[in-house]
Amino acid sequence: MSLVRWCPTRAIHRGLYLIVLWSSLCYLIFRFSGQDDTASFVNSNTKFVPLEAEPLIDRKPTPSELDLANQIQKNVPNLPIIYWQKYRGKLMKMNRTCAKFPSLYDINYNNMYWQILKSSNWSFYLYGAYYDNRTLVAMKPVIRILGMNDRLDQKVKIYCQLWFEGHTQPVFSQVFEYNLMWYKRWGDYTKGTFKPYMIACQIPPGYKHLVPESVSLVEKPCDMAKTNLRVINNRPEHGKKEDFAVCVKGLDFLHDDLSVRLVEWLELLFLVGANKVFFYQLEVHHNISKVLNYYQNQGKVEVTPITLPGEQPNIPGLLHMYLKSKLTNKRLNELIPYNDCLYKNIYRYKYIVLLDTDEIIMPKGVMNWKELMDTVIIPKALQTKKTLQASYNVRNVYFMDNMKYSQDWYIKIPNYMHMLQHVSRSVNYTKPRQYVKCFHDPEQVLTLHNHFPLSCLGGNCTTYDIETADAHLQHYRTDCVKTLKRSCDKEFRNNTIIDTTIWKYRDLLISQVTKVLVRLDFFNPRRGN
Ligand SMILES: *[C@@H]1O[C@H](CO)[C@@H](O)[C@H](O)[C@H]1NC(C)=O
Ligand SMILES: *[C@@H]1O[C@H](CO)[C@@H](O)[C@H](O)[C@H]1NC(C)=O
Ligand SMILES: *[C@@H]1O[C@H](CO)[C@@H](O)[C@H](O)[C@H]1NC(C)=O
Ligand SMILES: *[C@@H]1O[C@H](CO)[C@@H](O)[C@H](O)[C@H]1NC(C)=O
Ligand SMILES: *[C@@H]1O[C@H](CO)[C@@H](O)[C@H](O)[C@H]1NC(C)=O
Ligand SMILES: *[C@@H]1O[C@H](CO)[C@@H](O)[C@H](O)[C@H]1NC(C)=O
Ligand SMILES: *[C@@H]1O[C@H](CO)[C@@H](O)[C@H](O)[C@H]1NC(C)=O
Predict the structure, then answer these.
(1) What does the pLDDT average to over 89-104?
(2) What are the residue boundaries of the structural domains of the chain, listed by start?
(3) What value does the mean pLDDT take over residues 467-495?
(4) Residue with CA at minimum distance from ligand 7 atom 7
(5) Which of 98, 237, 384, 499 is buried deepest, with most CB atoms within 10 A?
(6) Beta 301-305 vs 276-284: how paired, if at all?
């Protein structure tokens, strides 16, 4: 029983609000029409004169083509739009009948971010191109191109046309490496299923000192190209590598509002020492966008929109249903963002970490990843393996939703802190090297899969198994992964212990997360709480 219900405050507020709104509108109309009160309004509360009204539309001037190009470049990093604008109209080609520089209007686009190289027998959907002159690359420097192909084991001859700043003619180079980013035993090779590939062209002698601006893929060297990808060569801003980049595959949470969970996850990542988190976005809830925009404006997060290539559904909602029911297609598609994230960061970070938003690599004896790697893992790895490894993997352990206890000591933790609340985990880890996550060394890995490198430079991939006493992967789920469901109860769910390692960040994490949630208006002060 509350006294408030006897006060008609809500009605009064609403009335006042309407009056204020209405008077402002009238004021604007009069102000800009130069009319006085009585001329157009018989009664200012009821009559509105459309002939005099000025609707509030965006009156910013139309951006210049250069502004537009910069904006497009930001949204679609694989498009060489700045370069094209600079040389548009200049004669850029091998000769009159050979290898003309394609206008951006000649490109065969697909689903926003893909470009198609089509032959009679196959189509190659290109996503990105990268300059690679890492020390261990035997043929360096090379241009690597990521894409998906609808035919398995494509070994046809195709060519790169490389375009350099200030040169009016392209340089030809035949593709010398086809790297299928998938193990055949993982299955699904029905014709028409897209397979993720990374292919490479060498930069020919005479041009090795130059970084190409863009690359076109063609079947025959002189073809008029229908593709043109900007060559990505991101170098560290201050000349020195930062420590850790985290990569997150295409977010598909249109209806799942994971925004608050995401804030807790990001803040914990920053506390353990992630320098920046790179997201790919298929479709997300508007509250998640709000969170991502906030961190993006702070420079701590980068969000790259992505679609599925070809004739796969990109219709909001249907996309989610498709990925849920076609698990192999989902996995095949994921290889592109993982490897794009690797290649745009090879020179900028010491380690690349692929994580899902329900996973955290938890250091045990130390406070953060840098201490973990520098003072624990690297010395141990050097001692047992003698050399630096391509990756350092951590074991996976489940923290399941229904494992939560309601004990007194949780009282000081707000309900909205999912990870801090869930400190009960299964005793058993999943098997060594299964469902693991890694710190990848970008100087050594060639292609990445979700859990481990698929291929490495200079031979077989090496890995160091991080001991569970030093760190492990905390995996927050409602259930075991599909492949472990049958044994889930017996091996994991019925055998739990309390693991409060995460509480070493408790106070800082609560205050950081709460600050952000308040700033983003997640708590409505008028309703209290
Ligand atoms: C144009 O260049 C190509 C490749 O270098 C060459 O094979 C061809 O003969 C040239 N054609 C003309 C008309 O110069
Ligand atoms: C296309 O496929 C046919 C039949 O398999 C083959 O004879 C032909 O050489 C292929 N063409 C190309 C360009 O790969
Ligand atoms: C790679 O290219 C960059 C310029 O993009 C250059 O500064 C660097 O020295 C090159 N590194 C190697 C190993 O060739
Ligand atoms: C890579 O691994 C394979 C299979 O284990 C082995 O046969 C081969 O000798 C290894 N290659 C190198 C360069 O170590
Ligand atoms: C796991 O625990 C549940 C509930 O305590 C029980 O019903 C079930 O039989 C147990 N399963 C196994 C395999 O021990
Ligand atoms: C999991 O734990 C049970 C005991 O609770 C044990 O019998 C079993 O061998 C363990 N399984 C694995 C895969 O470690
Ligand atoms: C989250 O979404 C709901 C539903 O659209 C909306 O009512 C709420 O205001 C949003 N929260 C924030 C913080 O924007």
Answers:
(1) 90
(2) 65-232, 237-519
(3) 87
(4) 287
(5) 499
(6) parallel
